[in-house]
Design goal:
Blueprint: E1 10-14, H1 19-34, E2 38-41, H2 45-50, E3 60-61, H3 79-101, E4 107-113, H4 117-125, E5 130-134, H5 138-148, H6 176-183, H7 185-192, E6 203-206, H8 214-221, E7 226-228, H9 235-239, H10 260-265, E8 272-276, H11 285-298, E9 301-305, H12 318-325, E10 328-331, H13 336-340, E11 345-350, H14 354-362, E12 367-369, H15 376-386, E13 390-392, H16 404-416, H17 420-438, H18 444-456
Parallel strand pairs: 1-2, 1-4, 2-3, 4-5, 5-6, 6-7, 8-9, 8-11, 9-10, 11-12, 12-13
Helix pairs in contact: 3-4, 5-8, 6-7, 11-16, 16-17
Bound molecules: uridine-5'-diphosphate-xylopyranose.
Uridine-5'-diphosphate-xylopyranose (UDX) binds at residues 18-20, 23, 136, 253, 276, 278-281, 305, 333-334, 336-337, 353-356, 359, 374-376.
């Protein structure tokens, strides 16, 4: 970080308070810092206190208020109530931060999570150029774009054929569009709110790879100044599947203190199934049991990240039994980038949250898609049918879960079945596309990032 006395180019980034969103934006902030900029990320105080924030490296963390700082749980409020409170308190916090920064280090660009359009209003009031940052894939954002444009009647009752998208069956749509609208009406407002005043921003940044979704990006570019900047994961992981060394300034999550990497180090290449359902999706207790028995029956080594809030959902003694035999390791949180970058991992059973999918694709790990809700079904459709990097587990619709036999079938199909060679070839292809995109600055994402910096800052190293 440049000394305060010097004037330097300063970018402020404001993420939506969720593990996925903050990981993506922190990694992008590190990317900007690697180009010589001063970057400040503004997590909410609540998130900072309750979430595993990856090591910020050269990025300054400046906590802001979401109106729940007095220990109240942001989760207790409804989505609307929370967003209203965050807009009021966050706007004040951001105003103060931008005024304070207006000294030696004028803010050249305000990058705000697309879920927080009010932050763009604050930036414009300060005369600062603004960029909306979309942390989900372009295909999902294009579905929402078409819904916003009135191309889709909600709740959706049958398969849809939309411009620049494959045919989407009801099971392939973001989960609240068909039936969930009654359960989660506020979520539709949250995702459509991303387009509020989008025509006023100077840039729209999408955490994806152009070559992964060219038609979708081209379509969105007909409406907005879209730049693809993904994957924002540290280049060291793309370049070398087993990045080691604590001196790696981009080391995303400190793997020190975690048993995962050492446990993987002594297992054969591509022999381990890694399982994680992200930071928010909540599989049912019955689903967790089916996954547990499926992993036991699949006969493969497995590493399973089971959040502490769900630890009582796996069979009593399961972790001890499989830990003792060396077949399986259950942890409450994994250094996921280090795990996916490890040669021992041969299959990723994922809920298809966008960050996890982007990480799995960027590191060339074949996947079993077990989507839970929101954008995950659409991402699962892309994993299996568009990118061909995995199989989507079939749900027992009556029981509303994936059964253990299906977990076994999918894991074996990905790791040794008739499609496994083709899946691995596709995974390698899309990994190379990600590497080329961010690699030497001439790729689609590298060029976008340098163009962004040169346009608003005095230099890009
Ligand atoms: C949420 C929504 O659930 C998802 O559908 C949407 O696409 C983004 O917002 P989340 O559930 O947190 O995302 O999943 P994901 O997008 O996969 O992000 C999880 C992040 O936590 C990833 O960056 C992953 O690397 C990290 N993680 C997860 C760990 O580091 N360790 C773990 O054990 C689990």
């Amino acid at each position: 970080m440049s000394p305060a006395s010097e004037s330097y180019d300063h970018v402020v980034l404001i993420p939506y308070p969720n593990q996925s969103h903050i990981n993506a934006m922190l990694q992008f902030a590190k990317r900007l810092a690697a180009h010589g900029l001063a970057a400040t990320l503004t997590p909410t105080r609540f998130l900072l206190a309750t979430t595993r924030i990856p090591s910020p490296g050269p990025v300054r963390l400046a906590p802001i208020s979401d109106g729940h700082d007095a220990g109240g749980s942001a989760e207790a409020a409804s989505v609307h109530a929370y967003l209203d409170s965050f807009e009021r308190a966050g706007s004040r916090s951001l105003d103060d931060l931008l005024l304070e920064a207006a000294g030696p280090s004028p803010v050249r660009l305000l990058i705000f999570d697309s879920f927080l359009p009010w932050a763009g209003d604050v930036g414009r009031r300060h005369g600062i150029p603004t960029a909306a940052f979309f942390t989900q894939c372009a295909a999902v954002n294009l579905v929402y774009f078409h819904v916003k444009a009135g191309m889709v009647e909600v709740p959706v009752r049958e398969a849809v054929e939309l411009p620049a998208l494959p045919r989407l069956e009801l099971r392939d749509l973001p989960s609240f569009l068909p039936e969930g609208i009654s359960i989660f009406p506020e979520f539709l407002d949250l995702v459509l709110n991303q387009f509020r005043d989008l025509e006023k921003v100077d840039e729209v940044l999408v955490n994806t790879v152009y070559e992964w979704e060219p038609q979708q990006i081209d379509w969105l570019r007909s409406a907005y100044p879209v730049k693809t900047v993904g994957p924002t994961i540290p280049y060291a992981y793309l370049d070398n599947r087993n990045p080691s060394g604590a001196n790696n300034v981009f080391r995303h999550l400190s793997a020190e203190g975690s048993p995962c990497v050492a446990w993987l180090d002594v297992r054969p290449a591509a022999s381990v199934v890694y399982v994680s359902f992200g930071s928010t999706a909540a599989p049912s207790p019955q689903q967790m049991l089916e996954v547990a028995f499926g992993l036991a029956d699949a006969g493969k080594h497995f590493l399973w990240a089971v959040r502490s809030s769900e630890a009582d959902m796996i069979p009593p003694g399961f972790a001890e039994e499989h830990g003792g035999s060396g077949r399986g390791l259950v942890v409450d949180w994994s250094p996921q980038l280090e795990v996916l970058a490890h040669d021992a991992v041969g299959c990723f059973v994922t809920h298809c949250g966008w960050n996890s999918t982007l990480e799995g694709m960027s590191l060339g790990v074949p996947m079993v898609a077990v989507p839970q809700w929101t954008d995950q079904p659409t991402v699962a459709k892309y994993v299996e049918d568009v990118w061909g990097v995995g199989v989507r587990a079939k749900r027992d619709e009556e029981a509303r879960l994936v059964r253990r036999e299906e977990v076994v079938r999918c894991v074996r199909e990905v790791m040794e079945g008739s499609r496994s060679d083709e899946i691995r070839r596709n995974a390698a292809k899309w990994r190379e596309a990600a590497k080329a995109a961010v690699g030497d600055g001439n790729g689609s994402s590298g060029k976008s990032t340098v163009e962004l910096i040169n346009k608003y800052c005095s230099k890009a190293e």
